[in-house]
Structure formats: C-alpha cells, structure tokens
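Hi F.,

I've been meaning to write this up properly since the lab meeting, where we talked about keeping a consistent format for the predictions we share between groups. The idea is simple: the sequence comes first, exactly as it goes in, then the structure tokens exactly as they come out, then a line or two of notes. No screenshots and no reformatting. I'm using this chain as the first example so we have something concrete to point to.
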Amino acid sequence: MLISSFETVYLTGWIVWLTLSVGLMLLQPSRYEICTAAYWAFLLQPWKIFTFFLALALITVVAPYSGDPTWDYLDSILTSCLTFVVAPWAVGSLFLAIKNRQFDRRLLVAICLFFTPCWCYDLYILIRDHAYPATWVSNLFLSGSIVALAGLFWNLAWSQGVGAHFSFSRSPWLGHDDTPFRKVLIPALVIAIPVVIMVMWFVMDAQSGK
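Output, unedited:
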C-alpha cells in the first residue's frame, strides 16, 4: 500500500476525529440537530429531494468523462449522499457557532462533518487503489467549496414578510414550514449555476485534452 508517513498521520487523525464526533453525537443526540427527527423532516422536503437527485445524476453521469481516474460512479454516489446529509447541518452549525461565539465541541463536530465527504473520497481511493490519493490536498478545497454551497442551497427557505433567506439565519432554525421551491428559485439558481459550470468546464477541459 502506497501511503507516506505524513498521509498515515493525516489518515489516523481524521479517523480519530470522526470517531470522537460520532461518539459525541450518540452520547448527546439532542445537542446535534442532525440526530433529530426535526432535521430529517427539514432535509426531506420534496424540493430538496428532487434537487438532490438532479445533482446526483449530474455528478454521476459525467464521472466517466472527467478525465480523472479517481472520479467514478461509486465515489460520486457516496460523496453526493454524504454531502446531502451533512452539508446543511454543518454549514448552519458553523454559521451559528461563529455568530454566537460558541467555540465548543459542537463546533468541532460541525467542522468534522463538513470535511466528511472529502475524507470518504480519500478512504475509497485508498481501498480501491491501495494508495492515498495524490489529489487529497486539492480535494479539500474543491470538496469544501461544494459542501459549503450545498449547505447554503439546502438551507434556503422562504417566509412571509422576510422572503427568501437561509434557514439558520432565523430562529428556530428547523421550525420553518415546507418551502415552495418557486419561492427560492432565484437564489437557488445563483448558488447552483456556478457549481454546474465548474463541473461542465472540468469535463470539457478533460475532453479537449484528449
């Protein structure tokens, strides 16, 4: 297995961090909204499920044309599903922690989950290719950008008198009724279009280089 000493320390470090984070969530689930029924009701609104499958289809279908041998169907599905599940909570929790100056265990768990899709990719490539991916550094930034945008996208909400906003910016965070997608269409496009352009540019650049 091809993995440097530094990569071994890095791998061990994030596995320990992730294990501790999961342990904290299991010990105090009520402190972490992602462990509650309210979060899943918030996440599984029809328009969020619909747009998730659109995003999943885009990322998965273009994988063979990306020119990146580490980008295949399985890791596309794994990272997409993880992003959908963790990004809205991680981004919202990071915002609230900074806003309220609450730099505690909850913040550490939020940061950990923020990078979980990236680490899932790393682990998958390590198992598949018996080598830690050489792209792990660049993937931290790429995956982080996508998780941040996904977290903002699936936190979009609308309420009378306020209009479109991010759910975590108003209290209660998860207390909003189902948001009609037409009410958040414009901000959704503002967030989604750059991601689509980035993915398509990546694919077109790979194809033109053949």
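Notes:
The chain is about 65% helix and 5% strand.
The first helix runs from residue 5 to 27.

If this format works for you, I'll send the rest the same way.

G.
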